[in-house]
Amino acid sequence: MAEAMLPLDARGLGIRFGDVQALRDVDLAIEAGRRIAVLGANGSGKSVLLRTLHGLLVPTTGTITFAGRAERPRSQAMVFQRPVMLRRTALANVEYALGINGTAPADREQLARRAIARVGLSHIARRQARALSGGEQQRIALARAWALEPALLFLDEPTSSLDPAAAGEVERIVQEIHAAGTTVVMTTHNLGLARRFADEIFFLDAGRLTEVTPAERFFSAPASREAALFLAGELP
Amino acid sequence: MSDILASFALAVRLIAGADRELRRIVSLSLEVSLAAALMACAIGLPLGAWIAVHRFRGRRVAIVFLNALLGLPSVVVGLLVYLLLSRAGPLGSLGILFTPTAIVLAQTLLVLPMVAALCRQMVEDGWGEYREQLTSLGVSPARAVPTLLVDLRFSLLTVVLLGFGRAASEVGAVMVVGGNIDGVTRVMTTAITLETTKGDLPLALALGIVLILVVLAVNALAYALREWSARRHG
Q: Which residue of B133, B152, B233 to mutate against A (max A Cβ within 10 Å)?
C-alpha cells in the first residue's frame, strides 16, 4: 500500500485565508515508514498543513504529489482532535467508513470488529458512539481510521483533549498502527509525546517550515532561534 | 356565559360519546394531513438537505426564496391549486377539485416550504459539524445527504410532526380546494368555520378541542423524541 502513496512530496505549498497567509513556501517530503511530529506555536499553521496534505484544504500555491503522481490516492486517513461520531453504535461507525471505502457489505462487520478489538474496545462495540467518553471516542476514531489500512495517517492533536490515562492509551495505539506499517504524521503540543513518538520533526514558524530534522537532533540542538524558544516554553 | 358553558359541556359529551359525525370529520382530517405531511417530507427533506450541503450558483437566492415561501398566505396557495385543478386549468382533466386529493395537494404545497427550510437549516448546522470528518473519510456531498438525513433523524422527525400539525390546522386553502362538502371534504378546520357561522357551537367546540389535543399531542411527541434522542445519542 505504501508504494502507491509515498513518498508524498509537497513543493512551494502556500495557503491564504483572506489577509492571512497560513502557510508559505512549504517544501517537504514524507517517506514511507516515518513517524513525524509537526511542532510549532499556536497559529503557526500545523493543523492547516495537515489538512492541506490530507486534501481537506486546497492550497493557494504549490503542488502535492504521491509517489510522483498528482492524483490523490484513497490510502490515507485522518483523526481529529475531537472526532465526530455518527449517531449510531461504535461498530456501525467503523462499518460506515469501510462502506465508504468500498469494502463489500459482507466483510464490513468482521473488519470493523477486528479494528475495534485492536484498540481494546470490543466490549463497547455495540454502545452508542456519542455516549462514549472522549478517550473511548478517540480510540474508536483510531479504529475507524485503522480499519481502512491507510498507508498514511494524519493525526491532529489526538491527545490534547484527553486525560493522561486516555492519552497514554491513544499513544500506545498510534505506536501499534505505525508498527503495523502505516506512516504517521501528527501535530501535537505535547513535547513529551513528540519525543517518545517521533523520529522526524517538522517545525513550523508563522506558516513557514523552518526545520525538517531528526527528532533527536531537534530536541538536543534546534537549528533556529524560534525552535529553541519553543522548546524552552517561551513561545505560546 | 351559561350558553358557552352549556356548549362546552355538550362538546365534551360529543367527544366522550365518540359522535359519528365528529369521528368522520376527525378521521378525514388526520388522513389528509398525514398524507400531505408525508408527501411534503418525501420531497422537502432531500431537497432541504441537498441545498444545505451543495454549493451552487444561485444558492442564496434559493434559500431566500424557500424562506419567503414560509410566509405564503394559505388562501393564495388554495387559489393557485384551485386554478390548476379547475375544469379550465392545466390539471382540470384529473377531476380532483373538491376531493380529499385536492386537499392533500394544497396542504402538501403549504407544508413543503416549511419542511424544506427547517431541514436545510438543521442539515446545514449538522454539515458544519460533520463536513471535515465525512470529507476526510471520502464522503462526497451527494453521499452526505442520506448520511445526514439518517443521523439527524430524530431532529428531523420533529419537522415531520410539525408539518403534520401545520397541515391539520390549515383552513384557508382547504376551504378553497375542498369546498367543505359534508361527508366528502369536510375536515376539522372547515367544519369549525361552518358550525360557528351556523351557531352550532357544541360541534365546533368539540372539533376545536380535538384539534388542539392533536396539535398538543404532536408537539409533546416531538419534544419527547428529541429528549430521548439527546439522552441516547448525545
A: B133
